[in-house]
Predict the 3D structure of the following.
Amino acid sequence: MIRESHHPSSSSIILCGLIALITGCASAPRLSTNPIPSDTYPPAEVLRDTERAYVARQWNPDEWQDVQSLMLLPSQTPTHINGLTSTQIDLVANRAIREICLDLAPYYALTDSQPDAIVQVTLEHIELTSKGAAGVSEILGLFVPGPFRLPTGLGGLAMTGQAFTPQGGTYVLTWREGAGAFTESAKLSPIGDAYQLAHEFSKDFVHPLTILNDHAQTPSSKKERLRLDSSAITANLNWCRVQFGEVSAAARTSSFVLPLSPESIDSGRPASN
């Protein structure tokens, strides 16, 4: 007597992949209140507003032309998020400010005192990643070519970034994004998606700070800020590592091919800071 095979057929795998393609994005985490007080800062410019993401920026580039030095403060976090430990929350928040620090290191002097501007980010909320769904995604990924995740159990992240000068210049970025089945890889941790999205937040936050308006040409023309010399950049990168820790190159490389949790590759901010 021949038994029927219970291995997934190619048609079922293709169907699963099509479902993921159609519905494979988590919605942007929604907050009950807008963290940007519009009566205090300039009107917000909405950069993205979709089911998956909401990004708004309040920014006057003229206030930042003369800023040459920055102080980066530790991230602020909620006291509690259901399903997460304080260590997991801190890990996501610290990754955001660490990546900001590393990306700004080529352009600004990073200092502990008397800066031209201060940078701080606040983690508002984390939507948890389903470890079970992530694990199944990894198994199915063995049969489906290319990036693949089930369109369920995807996480999300909501953050606010601020930079301000003693003279009253203020830059605020409100950022909320849900994970995508083809943009965030499956990680076996409830903060798996939020940890990856923290890097996306940092890139959006840093971008305007690395651009200068060139009024010698036209008011809207832009160019990259002048980069510091190599010794100054090295000193800044070391400052970032001392303040916010680092992930070893070997662990980071391994995480690209294995579903390693953030907790297993990142020790977070040094305890002495």
The chain has one domain: 41-265. DSSP finds seven helices and nine strands in the chain. Helices lie at 10-23, 86-104, 131-140, 192-206, 230-244, 249-257, 262-265. The beta strands are 45-49, 53-58, 69-72, 109-110, 117-127, 156-164, 170-178, 211-213, 222-224.
